[in-house]
């Protein structure tokens, strides 16, 4: 089945972070396509990937990048699909550079920016599923169940001293 989510990142080194997006999509049973697409090392590939993404059947693109984190913005410039940007924690500046590069999009081209690191990657996967759930009642039920279970786990374990 054609994947509806494209999970792309600037480097193989981003996978340790971006696999958190894959984790929640696996939990929710959503197919995704994973590929390294670098804005600065493979710029032509990035342009072609973004231009062809909608016609290939993708509905959401998740883009993760650390250094030179213009990847999600460049992808968004070439597609009308929603692009969710994940700032990967860079070594030099702890991901603040990635966050600002991804969040500070000039008016007219939108990138939805998540938190730095694995929490942001996980939430990007979750948000992609939530977007798809608007037209997928079965997926909507799975997300509701995930949220209910999360709430019940917290309520059942209120003592912070216990694991
Ligand atoms: C960016 O630079 C990637 O997104 C990665 O976060 C960072 C470092 O890349 P590598 O030098 O590890 O390939 O392109």
In percent, how much strand structure appears in the residues? 5-15%
Assigned CATH class: Alpha Beta
Summarize the helix and strand pattern as letters. EHEHEHEHEHH
Strand count, sense and barrel status of the largest sheet are: 5 strands, parallel
Shape: globular
Small-molecule binders:
5-O-phosphono-beta-D-ribofuranose
Radius of gyration: 16 Å
The average pLDDT is 97
Number of helices in the DSSP assignment: 6
* Distance separating the two termini: 40 Å
Parts with pLDDT < 50 across at least 5 consecutive residues: none
The neighbouring-strand order within the major sheet is 2-1-3-4-5
How many beta-strand segments?
A: 5
CATH architecture: 3-Layer(aba) Sandwich
Share of helix among residues? 40-55%
> What is the count of structural domains?
1
Based on secondary structure, the structural category is alpha/beta
CATH topology type: Rossmann fold
Function: Catalyzes the conversion of N5-carboxyaminoimidazole ribonucleotide (N5-CAIR) to 4-carboxy-5-aminoimidazole ribonucleotide (CAIR).
Protein name: N5-carboxyaminoimidazole ribonucleotide mutase
Keywords: Isomerase, Purine biosynthesis
EC number: 5.4.99.18
């Amino acid at each position: 089945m054609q994947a509806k989510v494209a999970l792309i990142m600037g480097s193989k080194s981003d996978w340790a972070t971006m696999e958190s997006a894959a984790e929640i999509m696996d939990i929710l049973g959503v197919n995704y396509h994973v590929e390294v697409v670098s804005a600065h090392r493979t710029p032509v590939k990035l342009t072609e990937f973004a231009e062809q993404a909608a016609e290939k059947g993708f509905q959401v693109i998740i883009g993760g990048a650390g250094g030179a984190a213009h990847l999600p913005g460049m992808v968004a410039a070439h597609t009308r699909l929603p692009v969710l940007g994940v700032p990967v924690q860079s070594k030099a500046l702890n991901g603040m550079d990635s966050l600002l590069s991804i969040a500070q999009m000039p008016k007219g081209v939108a990138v939805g920016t998540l938190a730095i690191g694995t929490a942001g990657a996980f939430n990007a996967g979750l948000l992609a599923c939530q977007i798809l759930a608007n037209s997928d009642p079965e997926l909507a039920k799975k997300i509701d169940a995930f949220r209910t279970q999360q709430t019940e786990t917290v309520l059942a374990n209120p003592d912070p001293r216990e694991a």
